[in-house]
Design a protein that fits this description.
26% strand, single chain, binds beta-D-glucopyranose, binds zinc ion, 360 residues, 11 helices, alpha/beta
């Protein structure tokens, strides 16, 4: 069987013949695997927590859609069912044992294609019933976005929890009077924009440059506004659209500082991005957070329920909301054999949002 492997923590990427040694009873064939910033960082050797499953190799890929080839003894799945395999697998802590391994307390978990467990960039794999989330619409290929979208569903869950501190909704009980600024217009930032707009927020996507054609198209379909900070300052835009809520999908301290400075009192800040750089100490930053009573929360991964919500969201709204635009390029798995894989996995093509590998 062919697959794509990397050598954490050093990175690199190779197309190889690999053996399957997994002993789980359900056999799956991979349909699609999406590529994201996490894969890029692993391949560049920049993700500190990337680690092999066995020896020094790791099969890449964590954003998958797969079809059941042999359900074994499973009572839930049958041959031909299409599923999304979960990325993270529990350890033994208390929180993992109650089903929320996305909040694992001691870090003793593994993540397929990222840390300690082989991923899905290969033709076949074996898995356990418990970590497979069934989809209903078998031919809906945008369901490959379920994995990145489950991160957004967890953000919705955290927002609902945090916003319970004070009555935070508008005086007609909706969120239509609230402005959400989303920093970063990669796939994750765009999915955030789509979901929170769908919840009623007025959403403004922020980046330092003009949007590409595909990004513009997606934002337009979703009714999300754009702020290009090379042309207009955030401090200008908030005069008309005060910042009630901010989600960062980049991870830069500069952005975080700008959020703290520009957001309203009692604002909510969710942090998802991790790829940023450090900022030299800025005293005002902490003062802003304290003095404004800000609610700041980090969010990573998502629960099985969040995957279920993501599947439901895509099946109900994905096509209407232009999720097909997010999949900007599709490559056949076999084509990759002759390509420079490191380049493929780390460099963006023109107008790329997300590229996807098609296996069958
Ligand atoms: C995945 C998460 C994972 C995180 C860190 C993201 O790309 O979507 O499920 O927890 O990387 O490893
Ligand atoms: Zn990803
Ligand atoms: Zn745990």
């Amino acid at each position: 069987m062919k697959g794509i492997i990397t050598y954490p923590p050093n990175g690199g990427a190779k197309f190889l013949d690999i053996d399957i040694y997994e002993r789980n009873e359900i056999k799956l064939k991979t349909l699609y695997v999406g590529v994201c910033g996490t894969d890029k960082e692993i391949v560049l050797g920049k993700l500190p927590f990337a680690r092999p499953e066995h020896g020094n190799t790791l099969i890449l890929g964590h954003e998958a859609l797969a079809v059941i080839e042999d359900p074994g003894e499973s009572k839930i799945f049958k041959k031909g069912d299409v599923v999304v395999p979960m990325v993270r697998r529990p350890g033994k802590c208390k929180i993992c044992s109650i089903g929320r391994w996305d909040y694992c307390e001691d870090g003793d978990f593994v993540e397929a294609g990222i840390r300690g467990k082989n991923g899905f960039m290969r033709e076949e794999f074996y898995d356990e019933e418990r970590y497979l989330v069934k989809v209903n619409q078998k031919d809906l290929d945008i369901l490959v976005l379920t994995e990145p979208l489950k991160n957004v569903m967890k953000m919705v869950e955290i927002f609902r929890f945090l916003s319970g501190k004070l009555p935070w909704y508008c005086d007609d009980s909706t969120y239509t009077c609230k402005n959400l600024y989303v920093f970063g217009t990669g796939p994750e930032g765009l999915l955030v924009g789509s979901v929170f707009k769908h919840m009623g927020f007025n959403v403004i996507a922020v980046n330092r440059h003009p949007p590409t054609e595909s990004v513009s198209k997606f934002l337009e379909i979703n009714g999300v506004d754009y702020l290009d900070t090379s042309k207009e300052k955030i401090s200008e835009r908030i005069k008309k659209f005060p910042m009630d809520f901010a989600i960062d999908a980049v991870g830069s301290m500069e952005i975080l500082y700008s959020i703290a400075k520009n957001i309203k009192n009692n604002g909510i800040v969710l942090l998802f991005g991790t790829s940023g750089q450090l900022l030299n100490g800025n005293k005002e930053f902490i003062t802003e957070i304290v003095d404004k009573n800000l609610l700041v929360a980090g969010s990573t991964d998502g629960s099985k329920q969040n995957y279920v919500e993501a599947v439901q969201f895509i099946e109900e709204n994905g096509m209407r909301l232009g999720f097909n635009v997010l999949i900007s390029q599709v490559f056949k798995f076999d084509e990759l054999e002759s390509m420079d894989l490191v380049k493929f996995l780390t460099e963006k093509r023109k107008d790329e949002i997300k590229k996807v590998i098609k296996f069958i």
